[in-house]
Amino acid sequence: MNATTFQPIEPRPAPVNTEGPVAWIKTNLMGDWKTTLSTVLIGAVLLWYVPQIINWAFITASWRPDYNACSAEGVGACWGVISEKYRIILFGRYPYEEQWRPLIATTLLTGLLVVSCMRRFWRVWLPLLWLAVLAVFFMLMYGNVGGLTQVDTDRWGGLPLTILLSSLSLVMCFPIALLVALGRRSKLPAIRSFCTIYVELIRGVPLISVLFMASFMFPLFMPQGTQIDVLLRVLVGITLFAAAYMAEVIRGGLQAIPKGQVEAAATLGLSYWQTQRKIVLPQALAMVVPGIMNNFISTFKDTSLVTIVSLYELTGALKLGVNSDANWRPYIIEGYLFIALIYFVFCFSMSRYSRWVEKQVNKSKLR
């Protein structure tokens, strides 16, 4: 028998760590020479500008509501404009001594939106809760009941108006968009043509034109002596505008459903609406969650255009409160940054909620 010689195997390299901050930096910031060069250049720009921004925004900033202190040499940001004008920014032209009413109303409506986003509260009583909260909201804002003084809708403004317009328009536009999306795929020519004309007509003009038509042109077609509140007209305009865009998002999800599933449902004897409700719509809406949320965020920000019809939401209230005061007018940029922070908090929250919904609807694909 021939003796065999032991031949040791060359040692293999240690496995590369793929977890942790160091691994993330190597993969995403220093993957190759191009990525490394971009990281170095961007890092150099940040090292140059970020300290200056921090110095302007915090270190040398003035926090006192005194415009004389803000005009001193070497003073950075003047956050005193927020301390001085925050009430008119948040509540617009609402009477000063009655601003506790929009504060409570906005807190209730915001809490309702948060509750509506939680799955444990998706019960049959949730629509009734919406009706109750909206009734309390309008009672507090409008008054003329329970000893509250009447405040007309043209004096509503600031954050309450922004949240009211965005939340109601989004709630009302969704069923309209759903029906329009189904109508554009209908086999009935009249319904399909009507839905197509509606979508193309609304999408062919900017929102500012829709608001102008709803506020100034629509009353001309009403019977003599008929008056429609400007807030209602604006709400209808934003709702119809958002529904047209959302209908196209939902239609994209409907077209992504394989035709074989619809044919299989027909073979099982399901009606059209049973097929849509149990098979098509659950899958289609799950596919377009990012697009729907993108439309929600866009509508929330587009409420700033209602200033054209003399409704002063956040942006309009800022201009109303700061531009009208010559002493604080030079510091309006700080006011815009304050409003930008409010918009960012709401929009980022909606974005994170969208990610959560995506994970929930995609659980079935992970099985």
From TrEMBL:
Organism: Rhodoferax ferrireducens
Gene Ontology biological-process entries: amino acid transport
Alphabetical UniProt keywords: Cell membrane, Membrane, Transmembrane, Transmembrane helix, Transport
Molecular function terms from GO: transmembrane transporter activity
Membrane-spanning ranges: 36-59, 100-117, 124-143, 163-183, 195-218, 230-250, 279-297, 331-350
GO cellular component, one term: ATP-binding cassette (ABC) transporter complex
Keyword Cell wall biogenesis/degradation in record: no
Principal localisation: membrane
Database matches in InterPro entries: AA_ABC_transptr_permease_3TM, ArtM/GltK/GlnP/TcyL/YhdX-like, MetI-like, MetI-like_sf
Lipid bilayer topology: Multi-pass membrane protein
Official protein name in the record: Amino acid ABC transporter permease
